[in-house]
Design goal:
Layout lengths: L4 H20 L6 H27 L18
GO molecular function: proton-transporting ATPase activity, rotational mechanism
Pfam family, one: ATP_synt_H
Family: Belongs to the V-ATPase e1/e2 subunit family.
Length: 75
């Protein structure tokens, strides 16, 4: 089940992937481009996932039932 530790587990995986991209980037004149592109894409994907995950973990808008009679609705 999803919980608060998922963010830190995902962060650890992304850090490992970034280190791997740094170490195993192909040698040559485009090594900096490879490293930058891979690390930037990993971090961007993680941020998108983390923001979407945290938004669902603690929603700003609470769902409301529309089939209740007005006298049973508590504000």
């Amino acid at each position: 089940m999803a919980n608060g530790w998922s963010i830190f587990i995902g962060l650890a995986i992304i850090i490992a992937m970034c280190v791997a991209a740094w170490v195993f980037a192909p040698k040559g004149e485009n090594q900096v481009l490879w490293r930058s592109s891979l690390i930037l894409s990993f971090v961007s994907c993680y941020l998108m996932w983390a923001i979407a995950f945290l938004a669902q973990l603690n929603p700003l808008i609470e769902p409301r039932r529309s089939d209740l009679r007005p006298e049973y609705i508590h504000h």
